[in-house]
Structures are given as C-alpha cells and as structure tokens.
C-alpha cells in the first residue's frame, strides 16, 4: 500500500513542483532585464577601481619601492645619479628629486592588478586608473614605457653620471693617497704641541 | 486548395509539388520565428536581454544564424561512415516533414486527405529514430553513439503513450482522418475534444477528466518525442557534449536544427488538431472560415511551442532510467485506464 | 571524461571505468592547473606579497584565502588587529561565502539541465561583487585582507548598500528554492545519490558542506573560532536526510543554500555594530616574524582551509603550505560514486563543489 501511495505522491509532486517553477519563470518574463548594454552603455567604475596603471613621471624620485613591492616583477626601473649642479626640481609632494629615471617600464601584461605598488610610493605617483579597455594586437605593445627622457638625453645623462662617478672615484683615491702621505709626514717629523696619544697605524706606504 | 492551384496552372505534376511545398515554406518561416522566440523568451526568463544589435532588438538574428550555418565548412570526420553521415540529417528532416502532409491547416488545405491520418503520422515520425541512429553510428564517436542509443530508446518508448493518447481521440470521433476529427470539433470551445467533444452534457462531464488527462499526457509525451527538456538527455551537454549532434557542422547541423523545430511544431499541431479543435475557432462561427482557420491553427500550435520553450528553461533534466520509468510505468498505465474509461463511457 | 568537459568544473580529468552505464571505478587525475603557489611564496621578498598569490588559489573565495594566510602570519608575529578590522573581515568573508555558494548552486543547476537558476544566481552575485569593487577596486581577486589589517577602509555608503543587499537577497533564496531545490525532477536526480556516510566522511577528512551534509555537526567558525565569530548568533546547518538518505547530494546542496541564509544573518549582526577605528594601524611596516611555524585553519566555503607557515626569521616565508579543502574532498569521490550511472557522476562532482585552482594550487 505504501508503494502505491509513494507512486501517486511522486507523480503529483512532479506535476505540482513543475507548475510552481513555471509560475516563477513566467513572472520573470515580465521583470526588467538587468543587462547593461556594453559598449553602448558603460558603467561608471567606483573611484577605487584597480585597472590600468599610470605613472606620473614628474613625481617619480626613482626610489624602487614599487619595483620591490611588485609580486610578479613587472616593473623595470633604471636610475642614473644626477650631478650636484643639475636641478631636477621638486615633486608635488615636496620631495627633492636627485635621480634621473631613464627607464621606467611596466609590463602591463604581467601585472596582476593587485595594487601593492600604489601604497608604497612615497610621492603617490603610481596610481591605478579605471581604464580597462586597453587590449592590443601585439603583445610587445603592452610594455608601457613611462620614462620622459629622450634617447639622446638618456645617453647624455648616463654618460654624465658615469663620468661623474669616475671623477668622484679618482678624487676619492687621490684624497686617500694625500691623507696617507700627510699622516706619514706627520709621523716621521718631530711633533710640537699636543701629540696624538696613540699613533694611527702606519699605512704600508712609501717611506721617506 | 488543390482545386485552386489546379485552376491556376492546369492539371500537372506541378500541382502536387506546390501542395507539398507550401508547408515547407511555412516550416522555414516558422523556424525563423521560433528561433527568435526561443532566444527572447529564454533571455527574459533569465532576466537578461538577448541579441539587440542585428535589427531592432535582434529580429534579424535568426537570419544571421541561418546564414552563418550555411556558409560554414561542412566537415566530415575521416573515420566516419560517409554515406550514412550525409544522409542522416535529411532522414530526420524527411521523417518530420512527412508528418506535415496529414495535418489540416484549415478547412480548405490539407496536404493529403488520407483516411488513416493519425496512424500515418505516428508511423512516419519513427523514421526520425532511424536518422538519429544513423547519425550517432556514422559519427564514429563514442559520445555520439551513446546519445543516439539513448535517443532511439527514448523516442521509441514515448511513441507508445503518444499513440495511445491519439487512440483516445480517435475513439471519441470514430475516424482517423484528421480533417474529419477537426470538423467533428467545429462549433466553439465547448466542442473541443479536450473538454469532451460535441456530446450530450452528461457524457461530456464524465469524459472530461479522462480527456484532460490524456491531453496532458500527450503533451508531455510529445515533449519527449522532440528531445526537449526535461527529456533532452540525448543532447545533454553535461556528458555528451552535443549527443548525436557532436560531429555535425554547417548545413547538416542547420538541417538537424530546423528538423527539431519542425518536429516541435508537428507534435504541437497534432495535439492542437486532436484535442483543441485544430483550425476551428473557439467562438463558434465568429472569426471562422478557411483563412481564419489557418490563423487559429497556427496560433494554437504556437501556444504549445511557447509552452515547450517555457518548460525547457524551467525544469532540470530527467535521467535516462527515470525517463523510461515515466513512460512505461506512469504514462502507459494512466492511458490504459483512460482508454478503458472512455470506451465504457462512450458505450453508455 | 577529459580535462575539457562542460561539467567537471575546471580542468579535471576523470578516468571512469564503466560497465554499460554503471560506473565501476573513478580515478581523478589532477594537476592541470598547478601553478606552484607554494614555491612562489618562498621567493617573495615580503610576506604581504604572498597575498595576491593566495587570492588566486581558490579564485571563487578569495577573501577567505587571504584571511587564512593573514591570520597565520599574524599569529606568528603575535600581533592583534583592531576590532574594526575584525568586524569588516567577518562581513567580507561571509559575503564571499554567499558569492561562492551562489556559483556552486548555479552550476549545479546547469549540470542538472536547469539553465535558469544559474543566471539568477549570477545576477545576485553581481551585487556582491559591486560591493567588493566599491571597497577594494577589484571584483574577483581582491588583495584586501592584509597581514595586520586591511588594504582600504570601507567607503562611505558601504554599510547602507550592504544592508540593502541583505534585504534584497533573502526573497531570492526563496525563489531559488521554488524553482530548483524542491523541484521533484531535481530531487529525483540528487536524492539518494552519492551517499556519504558520516564515518566515511570523517575518515577521509572531508570538511565543510560535505561533512555537514552527512549529518556531522561541525563548523570551524563555532567549534574552533577565529576572528570574532564567537560574538554572533547563527545556526550551523546540517543535512538531515529530508529527501533521501543522510549525506546524499541533495543534503549537501541544501546545506549550502541554508548556509547562505545564515551568512546573511551574520552579516546583518556585524553591520549593526562595526566599531570605529583605523584599519591600517596594526599593519606592520616590516614583517619579520621570529623563527617558528604556525598552522591555522579557517572555514572557507568549501571546507577547512588550512595554512601552515614556517618562518626562518627573515622577511620572506620559508614555507607556506595550503591545506586545500577541495583537494581533500575530491579524494572521497571514488568511494561514493561506485555503482552509480554517468549522469549521477555529474551530480556527484557538482555536489563536492571543487575549484580546480584550489585542488591543484
């Protein structure tokens, strides 16, 4: 008897639940659609939207913080020291710029859009914009070059920087040689006045 | 209709060709309309918009779809059985289209006024099974074969409830000629077989529960005939990618597609003819006539097609053994009881 | 059933031995989505940099992944986060749980052949993703829960929008129940299929809705609380065998549906009482934990998500191991699918709710 009851109950339930479902879907025929007809209608993204990166090079001080923060290493930066006589200006946040940035590439195809590079920038020059339509046909066009120096300027700046480095290095070497000479002279000549309590260790330099 | 054409072009074979081609024109136009309807109905049930670009709100999309299918490359897998592979879609379409010959579109037009119309339709729609089996076998793909076997089993086992339901209608009218069944129901909604037919009110009330049940079962069995959800396991993408359709592309796929829609209308048309009065108007003599007949018939057919589309997007799928259970253990017993009851009541 | 299949929920390969239509043996083959999460985390210069990678493990439940990892590192550092951070973390995790369950339910419907609930679930999920986008800018992989705090504070208007969402969502669950859950065809497809007895579930270390569907009343949020879960009132949902045996696919499914309702309860309670504070105040400038190890387990939508972090005293982790719930839950599949049919196999995979990103890491 129980089997007969289940048999009829199943049939009745099958028909009834199908009808309930049909009523629901019928009502949905008349609810307005939720589709946004892109690309005719583009929704406005919220202001914190994390999409394509943008770097304002005027504010970049070449600190490498974003390069280090990136988990996928998609930011490639090269800096060159500026001469003391060059004036690179001040960023909008008040930092004095001391480095030329001849190369600032972001491989936006590698970027995972995590936003870790944004809070670490001291001058807030790297931001995530709300641009999301930037597909290209050529993969290499997705490497964005943000540096604002012209190639001639880059060569010039790099050459000047290396020259300055060399100059500084030779000057330093001469200065240490001079200091060594002076110390040797002071050590061999009789001292007058206050003599140092403990003589500095004699460098293995030329003896008079 | 036949006389009309004969009077226009004289007595030649062309008359019969034209008579046979008229439903084809209808089927092709109807396929476009139904494609659009399915797309839009399914979209609005799901709270979304369907195509909006091709034409106003996408009305030209079915044309674009058919054009795309026609110009697609017709691939035939190397290991496939070529003759069978090529013939299969046409067989399916022939099986469906041949059924259109016996359905009366109006009091003036019926493709072929045969005495055994109902039997003919049941018989000829079995060719579809052969076509599907051929498609599954010739594709040389184990998933296609699976789908085809399941489909064959399903179609064959749901022919029986369909035939039994048609038998009930035939019993009440006493004739298998579909045109006569239609004329039997002429005169208004109360004469429709679903509500008992043009019989004295006492017999009608006794008959009504049985005819309504039969009508309902016929509709569900015809869903299974057409491979629509909840009976679309042969085409279920979850295991079988596309079932017996997997290897087909281009024009052959288009023919399968159109055949499926034509089949939908065929079974809707049969249900409408047998139980809802076909081309008769529900208001009796108001809005009735040969041309109005076409309108009523197509309208009733489209109501059923809409119902089939609506059901597809509402219900999940039945598993294959549950399908068989539903056919053999649920529909057939109910129909046997109905036949017994109707026979008894008619003899009172 | 190869790696590219419409219903294996990702790139999972199932080797199925069949006898006609009955399944004799199922052997899952994974690894198609292995992305070396654990190895990558050893090479990050910084503990915070691991969080985007942890997001991408179970990409449908990113907030829970972030929280698990951040919790492990916070315990290693022995720092406390401000109460405002705890409340917001709970809200985000519960919203994420609803989003993840919506996908599980929607895709389960599609596997069964019901196409409509999928789109309705996604429509609701869009509202949750809008909330997330408002807060942290991303819709799927958030990088929001940082070690020691959060990346952004919740914007003005978030609380109201979240409350509006809670009000909007509960009637939709009833609709979903009417369309799919109590539909007789769906019940026939999922009841008494893939029955997982409670002792088998415990022996195989299943967790989450798989375990609760088998009748075991165990939820990490209540039994091993982390964050401030002990301050909220909600009921742990357990499968009771209403439509068939205890522990069948329908039970697991209904546990998920009911868990969504309970999550709404938790969110409403949390939204009502968020304290003021600064969400970044406890984020350390330099993360350098002492040498040691820590294992933390959290309740992700799929089950017990565990993070085992070993630190060697430097700024980058020595080892990060993720105990992924989907991986462990998948291991029970051969056991429960013996003797079923192919169509049932699809039902069983759907009810385990695997995400291949988590299975393969």
Summarize the structure.
The complex is a heterotrimer of chains A (208), B (348) and C (361). Chain A has 208 residues and is an alpha+beta fold.
Core attributes:
heterotrimer; B: 348 residues; mainly alpha; 13 helices; globular; C: 361 residues; Cytochrome-c3 Hydrogenase, chain B; 3-stranded antiparallel sheet; two-stranded antiparallel ribbon; 15 helices; 48% helix
Your description of this structure?
The complex is a heterotrimer of chains A (208), B (348) and C (361). With 208 residues, chain A is of the alpha+beta class. Helix content of chain A is 36%, strand content 12%. Chain A is built from 4 helices and 5 strands, in the order αβαββαββα. A 3-stranded antiparallel sheet of chain A has the order 2-3-5. Helices cover 67% and strands 0% of the residues of chain B. Chain B has 13 helices and no strands. The model of chain B has no long low-confidence stretch (mean pLDDT 84). Chain C has a single domain (6-360), classed as Orthogonal Bundle (Cytochrome-c3 Hydrogenase, chain B). Chain C starts with 12 loop residues before the first strand and ends with a helix. The interface between A and B is medium-sized, with 16 and 15 residues.
State the CATH topology of the domain at 53-153 in chain A: Alpha-Beta Plaits
Mean pLDDT of chain A: 82
Which sheet architecture does the biggest sheet of chain C show? 3 strands, antiparallel
* Quaternary status: heterotrimer
Helix/strand structural class of chain A = alpha+beta
Low-confidence stretches of chain C: none
Along the chain, the helix and strand elements of chain C come as EEHHHHHEEHHHHHHEEEHHHH
Helix proportion range of chain C: 40-55%
Given the helix and strand composition of chain C, which structural class is it? mainly alpha
How would the blueprint of this fold be written?
The complex is a heterotrimer of chains A (208), B (348) and C (361).
Chain A: H1 2-28, E1 53-55, H2 65-69, E2 75-81, E3 99-107, H3 117-120, E4 126-128, E5 143-145, H4 151-188
Chain B: H1 2-9, H2 13-45, H3 61-70, H4 82-99, H5 117-124, H6 127-138, H7 142-173, H8 178-184, H9 201-225, H10 237-240, H11 251-275, H12 290-312, H13 320-346
Chain C: E1 13-19, E2 22-29, H1 37-42, H2 50-55, H3 62-77, H4 83-112, H5 116-136, E3 145-146, E4 149-150, H6 158-181, H7 184-190, H8 198-203, H9 209-213, H10 220-223, H11 249-272, E5 292-300, E6 303-311, E7 319-323, H12 325-330, H13 333-336, H14 342-352, H15 356-360
Antiparallel strand pairs in C: 1-2, 3-4, 5-6, 6-7
């Amino acid at each position: 008897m129980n089997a007969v009851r289940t048999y009829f109950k199943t049939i009745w339930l099958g028909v009834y639940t199908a009808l309930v479902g049909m009523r629901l879907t019928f009502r949905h025929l008349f609810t307005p659609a939720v589709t946004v007809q892109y690309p005719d209608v583009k929704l406005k993204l919220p202001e914190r939207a994390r999409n394509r990166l943008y770097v304002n090079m005027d504010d970049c001080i070449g600190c490498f913080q974003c390069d280090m923060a990136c988990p996928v290493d998609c930011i490639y930066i090269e800096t060159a020291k500026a001469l003391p006589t060059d004036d690179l200006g001040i960023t909008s946040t008040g930092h004095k710029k001391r480095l030329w940035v001849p190369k600032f590439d972001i491989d936006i195809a590698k970027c995972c859009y995590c936003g870790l590079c944004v809070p670490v920038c001291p001058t807030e020059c790297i931001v995530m914009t709300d641009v999301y339509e930037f597909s290209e046909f050529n993969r290499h066009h997705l490497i964005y070059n943000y540096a604002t120096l012209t190639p001639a300027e880059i060569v010039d700046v790099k050459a000047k920087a290396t020259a300055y480095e060399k100059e500084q290095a030779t000057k330093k070497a001469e200065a240490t040689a001079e200091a060594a000479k002076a110390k040797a002279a002071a050590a061999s000549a009789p001292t007058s006045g206050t003599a140092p309590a403990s003589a500095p260790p004699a460098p293995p330099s030329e003896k008079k | 209709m036949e006389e009309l054409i004969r009077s226009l072009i004289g007595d030649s074979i062309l008359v019969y060709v034209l008579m046979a081609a008229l439903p084809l024109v209808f089927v092709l136009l109807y396929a476009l309309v139904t494609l659009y309807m399915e797309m839009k109905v399914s979209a609005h049930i799901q709270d979304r918009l369907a195509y909006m670009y091709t034409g106003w709100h996408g009305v030209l999309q079915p044309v674009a779809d058919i054009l795309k299918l026609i110009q697609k490359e017709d691939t035939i897998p190397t290991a496939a059985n070529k003759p069978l592979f090529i013939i299969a879609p046409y067989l399916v379409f022939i099986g469906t289209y041949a059924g259109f010959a016996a359905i009366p579109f109006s009091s003036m037009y019926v493709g072929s006024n045969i005495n055994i119309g109902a039997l003919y339709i049941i018989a000829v729609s079995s060719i579809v099974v052969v076509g599907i089996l051929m498609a599954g076998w010739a594709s040389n793909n184990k998933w296609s074969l699976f789908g085809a076997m399941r489909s064959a089993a399903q179609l064959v086992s749901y022919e029986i409830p369909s035939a039994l339901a048609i038998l009930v209608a035939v019993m009440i009218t006493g004739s298998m000629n579909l045109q006569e069944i239609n004329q039997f129901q002429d005169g208004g909604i109360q004469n429709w077989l679903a509500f008992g037919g043009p019989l004295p009110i006492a017999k009608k009330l006794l008959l009504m529960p049985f005819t309504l049940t039969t009508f309902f079962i016929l509709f569900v069995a015809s869903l299974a005939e057409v491979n629509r959800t909840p009976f679309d396991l042969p085409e279920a993408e979850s295991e079988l990618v596309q079932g017996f359709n997997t290897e087909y592309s281009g024009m052959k796929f288009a023919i399968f597609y159109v055949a499926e829609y034509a089949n939908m209308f065929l079974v809707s048309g049969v249900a409408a003819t047998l139980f809802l009065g076909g081309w008769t108007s529900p208001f009796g003599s108001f809005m009735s006539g040969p041309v109005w007949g076409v309108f009523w018939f197509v309208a009733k057919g489209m109501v059923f097609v809409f119902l089939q589309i609506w059901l597809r997007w509402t219900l999940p799928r039945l598993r294959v053994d549950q399908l068989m259970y539903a056919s053999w253990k649920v529909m057939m017993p109910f129909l046997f009881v109905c036949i017994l009851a109707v026979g008894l009541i008619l003899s009172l | 059933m190869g790696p590219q299949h419409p219903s294996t929920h990702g790139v999972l390969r199932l080797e199925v031995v069949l006898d006609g239509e009955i399944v004799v043996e199922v052997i899952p083959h994974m690894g198609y989505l292995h992305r070396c999460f654990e190895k990558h985390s050893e090479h990050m210069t910084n503990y915070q940099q691991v969080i985007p990678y942890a997001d991408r493990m179970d990409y449908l439940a990113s907030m829970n992944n972030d929280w698990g990892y951040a919790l492990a590192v916070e315990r290693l550092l022995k720092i406390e986060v401000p109460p405002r951070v705890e409340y917001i973390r709970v809200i985000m995790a519960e919203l994420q749980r609803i989003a993840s369950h919506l996908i599980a339910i929607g895709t389960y419907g599609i596997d069964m052949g019901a196409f409509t609930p999928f789109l309705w679930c996604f429509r609701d999920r869009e509202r949750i993703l809008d909330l997330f986008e408002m807060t942290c800018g991303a819709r799927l992989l958030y990088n929001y829960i940082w070690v020691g705090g959060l990346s952004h504070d919740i914007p003005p208007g978030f609380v109201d929008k979240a409350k509006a969402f809670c009000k909007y969502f509960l009637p939709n669950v009833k609709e979903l129940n009417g369309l799919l859950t109590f539909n007789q065809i769906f019940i026939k497809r999922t009841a008494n299929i893939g029955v997982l007895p409670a002792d088998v579930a415990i022996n195989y270390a299943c967790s989450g809705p798989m375990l609760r569907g088998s009748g075991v009343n165990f939820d990490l949020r209540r039994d091993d609380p982390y964050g401030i879960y002990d301050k909220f009132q909600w009921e742990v949902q357990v499968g009771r065998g209403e439509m068939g045996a205890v522990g069948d696919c329908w039970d697991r499914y209904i546990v998920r549906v009911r868990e969504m309702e309970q999550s709404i309860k938790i969110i409403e309670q949390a939204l009502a009482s968020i304290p003021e504070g600064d969400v970044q105040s406890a984020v350390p400038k330099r993360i350098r934990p002492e040498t040691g190890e820590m294992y933390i387990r959290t309740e992700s939508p799929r089950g017990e998500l565990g993070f085992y972090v070993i630190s060697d005293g430097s700024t980058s982790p020595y080892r990060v191991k993720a105990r992924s719930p989907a991986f462990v839950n998948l291991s029970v599949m051969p056991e429960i699918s013996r003797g079923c049919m192919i169509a049932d196999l699809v039902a069983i995979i759907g009810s385990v709710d695997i995400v291949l990103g988590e299975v393969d890491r």
